[in-house]
């Protein structure tokens, strides 16, 4: 007697078993793909957040280095004058 060939062994496996194996392997594949996509999206969001944070720091650094706007200087002078007037009692409500 000769050894049964591999094809004969595959033909003996019921269709339901083959379908079950296909479904299980498909679900495992989809699960692995989902985990990889979660990691990819997380990494992308972290990279974009870092870019925004660095841009915000750069903007703040430039604002601190830039000379103040004349209207801002005038507003501060008026606020200081008003506080001095209140402190010295020259202001009546």
From TrEMBL:
Gene Ontology CC annotations of this record: membrane
Keyword Transmembrane helix: yes
Cross-referenced InterPro entries: COX14 (IPR029208)
Residue ranges of the TM segments: 20-41
Topology of this chain in the membrane: Single-pass membrane protein
Location(s), subcellular: Membrane
Family annotation (Pfam families): COX14
Keywords, comma-separated and alphabetical: Membrane, Transmembrane, Transmembrane helix
Identification of the protein by name: Uncharacterized protein
Source species taxonomy: Eukaryota, Fungi, Dikarya, Basidiomycota, Agaricomycotina
């Amino acid at each position: 007697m000769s050894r049964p060939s591999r094809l004969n062994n595959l033909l003996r496996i019921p269709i339901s078993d083959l379908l079950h194996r296909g479904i299980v392997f498909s679900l495992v594949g989809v699960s692995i793909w989902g985990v990889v996509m979660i990691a990819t999206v997380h990494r992308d969001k972290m990279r974009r957040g870092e870019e925004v944070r660095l841009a915000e720091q750069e903007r703040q650094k430039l604002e601190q280095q830039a000379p103040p706007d004349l209207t801002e200087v005038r507003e501060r002078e008026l606020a200081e004058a008003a506080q001095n007037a209140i402190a010295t009692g020259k202001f009546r409500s």
